[in-house]
Amino acid sequence: MQELRIGDPFEESTQLGPLANADAVTSLDADVKKTVAAGGRVLIGGHPLDRPGNFYAPTVLTNIPKDSPAYKEEFFGPVASLFRVKDVDEAIQIANDNRFGLGASAWTNDPGESERFINELDAGMVFLNKMVASDPRLPFGGVKYSGHGRELAVQGIREFVNAKTVWIQ
Where in the chain is the domain with CATH 3.40.309.10? Predict the structure, then answer.
């Protein structure tokens, strides 16, 4: 996270661009501060960047309490929440213990763990050994408060079709 090149998203060397607007920076910073006040710990970052534009420092949070924003809310900015778990059961429990379910990313070389992540993670998309991504060939969408239905792929196209049923007897 420290090595990310921050800057203009139109420059090819940029790896992290600005947030959409100043309110997004303010909201993200408030949630990070609330998480820290609840007992969370900032490993890196945790503040807006002092430069033109709506930039927030790449941030990693750990020791995240259940009653903090980093545990129960979606962060729309460069903030990673790091949870240490003792086993796959605890990883799945923490991943599912929220009201959102767009995408999940799990990393393992164990076929049994892979199968568990696929079957037990409550998300619209599960990626193994890869970050969550969008591909127009595949359905994209979540479960719970992260939406319903899908966009992209065949399933997404059908969202825009008005089917008419005609029954003549």
Answer: 1-84
Judged by DSSP in three states, 31 sits in helix
3-state secondary structure of 45: coil
- Written as tens digits, the pLDDT of the chain (169 aa) is 889 999 999 999 999 999 999 999 999 999 999 999 999 999 999 999 999 999 999 999 999 999 999 999 989 999 999 999 999 999 999 999 999 888 999 999 999 999 999 999 999 999 999 999 988 888 878 888 777 777 777 777 777 677 777 788 8
**Which helix (H) or strand (E) segment is 29 a member of?**
helix 22-37
Distance CA 159, CA 24 (A): 30
Return the bridge partners of 103, or none: 125
Q: Which two tokens stand for residue 108?
A: 């393992």
Show the CA angle centred on residue 2, arms to residues 5 and 16, nearest 5°: 35
d(CA 40, CA 69): 10
Q: Which CATH class is domain 1-84?
A: alpha beta
Using CB atoms within 10 Å of the CB of residue 14, give its burial: 0 to 12 exposed, 13 to 18 middle, 19+ buried. Answer: middle
Q: Which of 49, 45, 48, 55 is CA-nearest to residue 8?
A: 55
What pTM did the predictor assign? 0.82
H/E element, 42: strand 41-44
